Amino acid sequence: MADAVECSLSGYPEREMVESSTQVQITSKDALNRQFKWYKASLEGVKEPTRTLLERYSKIPDDQMVKHVMGVAPYPCIGSFRFLEITIYNSAAYPEILARLKSGDKYLDLACALGQDIRHLIFKGAIPSNLYGSDLRPEFFNLGYDLFFDRSTLKATFIASDIFDDTSALLRQLAGKLDIINAASFFHLFDWDSQVSVAKQVVKLLRPVSGSLLVGRHSGNVRPGKRDGSELRGPIYRHDTVSFRRLWEQVGRETGTEWEADITEEKWEDLQTHADSDEGAFKMQYVIRRV
Ligand SMILES: C[S@@+](CC[C@H](N)C(=O)[O-])C[C@H]1O[C@@H](n2cnc3c(N)ncnc32)[C@H](O)[C@@H]1O
């Protein structure tokens, strides 16, 4: 690739406990990302509950935290530090999820990227070996190990897979075995039909019993509909609470299953840092439960 620059992310230079270094390709597309309003060139601070997680789980002193994060992931394809947000922490189902994960339920973070929610759940008492993360891009798993200093200690399992691939390792290993799936900032990457396909894979992955749970948050919009030519990708569909409920009704009809959808609308704090957003955008939180 002529215009690609090899970027060596050597963890945290002044710490002897660095466990690995991760090679990441910075491409011309990454450079392009710098022009968008959501790209942040630097990090001002780490907010709770991630601050406590990095301090007590990863043993990174408070005054060295920003330097550490910038050392692991300073490149623009993760340009707004979204990987420092524990997405599940703000879910209405968080207390239930934590209780279920302490007593043996199996959990998948679908499209987990660096896997920050998995570390948070372990820190809060979830049984690590029952936690799985999956993403299209396995290099994110390596960055997660670098960020949290847990390559040799983490007992959760990461599986690189394309969610649309029926023959994937994810489907082969976990179909019908999971109790809870978290899919944060994922459905909104796709158009309506692809979102239906993702939802059907979720149905296959979850145990076919009442109480199986999908939770997540993503960008919603008060003006639901298809958007063409977005900043970073092909056509996408932005939902309001009504259209996302309708999508799950369609999935229920087409899979012979029934789902109860609890979908809420929240204000995004720093809307300008979100890709493909406008003044109608809001943060959608959802809890989709099999009846
Ligand atoms: C916006 S990030 C969200 C990351 C994480 N869930 C979070 O909220 O911090 C979207 C993630 O989806 C992954 N992804 C995109 N297409 C995918 C696919 N077809 N199958 C699995 N993961 C995919 C990307 O690699 C990326 O890590």
- Distinct small molecules bound, one entry per kind: S-adenosylmethionine
Task: Give the neighbour order of strands across the main sheet.
Answer: 5-4-3-6-7-11-10
Class from secondary-structure proportions: alpha/beta
| Total count of helical runs of at least 4 residues | 9
Profile the largest sheet: 7 strands, mixed
Count of beta strands: 11
Percent of residues in helical segments?
Answer: 25-40%
| Overall radius of gyration | 19 Å
Family: Belongs to the class I-like SAM-binding methyltransferase superfamily.
Keywords: S-adenosyl-L-methionine, Transferase
GO molecular function: transferase activity
Protein name: Methyltransferase domain-containing protein
Notes on the structure:
With 291 residues, the chain is of the alpha/beta class. The protein has two domains: 74 residues, no CATH class; 205 residues, Vaccinia Virus protein VP39 (Rossmann fold, 3-Layer(aba) Sandwich), CATH 3.40.50. Helix content is 29%, strand content 20%. The strands form three sheets. The protein has a seven-stranded mixed sheet, with helices on one face. It has a two-stranded antiparallel ribbon with strand order 1-2. Helix 8 packs across helix 9. The site of S-adenosylmethionine has 17 residues, from loops. Keywords: S-adenosyl-L-methionine, Transferase. This is Methyltransferase domain-containing protein. GO terms for molecular function: transferase activity.
